[in-house]
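How a chain folds remains the central question behind the approach discussed here. The record that follows shows the chain in one-letter code together with its fold in token form:
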Amino acid sequence: WNSPLPLRDPNISQARAIEWLTVTGVDAQGDTGGSPRSHGLVGFPPYNAAAVEAPGGWNATPETLIAMTRQLTAGGKSKMFAKDPLPTTYYFKTRQGNMGVLQILGFTEGEPRGVKIR
């Protein structure tokens, strides 16, 4: 699998999509469709990266990150919304157990649309 999976292709089977997600390790993608209030990152069932909004923001201590992500289980919350005012910060844990801090900074204009993160 050295090419992107065309997820909008109606001919892609669910089994093939899950196989691609498994092989590539993808846990989430940007969601810029619909209402701007629903923009952010969305997980792929059953591999959703678990996430919780970060009360300490980007500058939280490692101890806070560990404590907050320890309770998360992949497959949990599947949507990380961009909330005003930006940036919106989340602690997350991937299906492989990796954890980190993700911040939604904004969105790209034009085509293709995207989510700006760090």
Observations:
- The mean pLDDT is 78.
- The two ends are 26 Å apart (CA to CA).
- Residues 27-117 form one domain.
